[in-house]
Amino acid sequence: MTSAGVVARARVRQGWARVRRAFLPVLGASLAAGSAWAIARYGLGHPAPFFAPVSAWVALGFTADRRPRRVAELAAGVAVGVALGDLLVHVIGSGPVQVAVVLAVAALVGRFVDRGDLFAMQAGVQAIVIVALPAAQVGSPVNRWVDALVGGGLALAVAVLWPQDPRRRVRAIGEEGLVEVADVLRHLATGFARGSEDEVDEALARGRASQPVLDQWRSTAGAARQSARVSPAFRRHLDELTALEAAAVSVDRAMRSARVLARRSRVVVRDEHDVARLAVLVGDVAEGTADLAATLGRGADLTRARARLAGVAARTDPWAVAPEDWHVQGLVLLLRSLVVDLLEAAGVEPEDARAHLPEI
Q1: The last residue of a domain, from among 144, 161, 178
Q2: How many domains does the chain have?
Q3: Shortest CA distance to 264 belongs to which of 334, 178, 356, 358?
Q4: Do residue 216 and residue 335 come from a single domain?
Q5: Most buried in the list 48, 168, 178, 208, measured by CB within 10 Å?
Q6: Residue 15 lies in a domain
């Protein structure tokens, strides 16, 4: 398969992973938006409750970050934007100048009311909608504001009654990232075992295509940790989220080492060096990485995964793997660094991780 084909397949795989993670949040937000429309339409008798589902969807979104403060901030921003838009349109009318004026006033009022960027952003967006859309299309001024309150209130109720554990999303992305590392190593082991440059090239292409997942793991873990610091409900998870963020950094280093290993392996495979023992060793590292991925994804005890990786680390003696081939010995040295990074991702202290390596 060409490099472009490998990248395309990786993008599809990562896209489906994002869909799986977003499915429940999207379903919940969609149901809340539909319910808000029904309440405003049939419960309150509003003929065009445009802002009820808009407010619910904007406040909940499709992410797993459903902290009540964040949801309330977004919902309040929508309500304030609608109210200010209606008030100013009634006074100055609509048009390009009015759009600019209403946006500026709504954004500045939003900054005055709340320090959060989300509040001011939504106040400005909804004010623009009010100015740009004719009243006949979105209901009367009072109804629009009430609809925004209905949608925002329902979104807040969902956030309070259906809290999302911030660890779940970080674990899922972490598992995906580690699976990417394991897959790269599996292709590399297969390339060694079969003497196939194509397998080595695919390992390198997959390693390059996996970077967005690793970047997302790191950013998501950092955001979740910061949220837990200010959330009484999730502060007890702060240590685990901190560890998951540190693991993201270690796995990113491991993947970089895997890419370097793949690049330097092409020459060894092409020149038909004896890499049978290296193939077995790399395959065992891949399986240990897959075990770590599954364990981390479940949020289970990592002791067994650490022991498995430590056992593989103890076999990374360059002279035992390739007594007389310095090319292969160089690859084993790269593999040692990679295994240390994986041990650190599993929660082993750096000095203890290096202590598992045989002396050279």
Answers
A1: 161
A2: 2
A3: 334
A4: yes
A5: 178
A6: no
Same domain, 245 and 308: yes
**Distance (Å) of CA 106 to CA 55, 75, 86, 213:** 16, 15, 11, 37
Provide long-range contacts, Cβ within 8 A and 24+ apart, for 27-32: 28/60, 28/158, 28/162, 29/56, 29/57, 29/60, 29/61, 29/62, 29/155, 29/158, 30/57, 32/56, 32/57, 32/60, 32/151, 32/154, 32/155, 32/158
- Closest C-alpha among 53, 268, 21 to residue 169: 21
Q: Of 166-170, 187-191, 224-228, 274-278, which range is least confident?
A: 224-228
Q: Quote the domain boundaries for residue 248.
A: 166-355
Which residue intervals of the chain are DSSP H helices? 3-38, 51-60, 68-92, 96-113, 117-132, 135-138, 141-161, 166-194, 197-209, 211-230, 238-270, 276-298, 303-313, 318-321, 326-345, 350-355
Q: Give the contacts of 275 (CB within 8 A, at least 6 positions apart).
A: 192, 268, 269, 322, 328, 331
Measure Cα distances from 244 to 160, 170, 347, 348, 350 in Å.
25, 7, 9, 13, 16
* In a shared domain, residues 180 and 329: yes
Angle between helices 117-132 and 96-113 (to 10 degrees): 150
The answer to whether the CB of 93 falls within 8 A of the CB of 80 is no
Same domain for 311 and 179, yes or no, is yes
5-31 pLDDT, tens digit per residue, is 666 776 787 677 777 767 777 888 888
pLDDT tens-digit readout, 241-289: 899 999 999 999 999 999 999 999 988 888 888 889 999 999 999 999 9
| Pair 351, 234 in one domain | yes
**266, part of any domain:** yes
Please say which residue of 131, 146, 161 terminates a domain: 161
pLDDT band at residue 121 using 50, 70 and 90 as cut-offs: confident
pTM for the predicted model, two decimal places = 0.71
pLDDT surpassing 70 at residue 231:
no
Q: Which value, to the nearest 10 degrees, does the dihedral of the CA atoms of residues 237, 238, 240, 242 take?
A: 160
Answer for the pair 266, 201: CB distance below 8 angstroms, yes or no: yes
| In-domain check, residue 5 | no
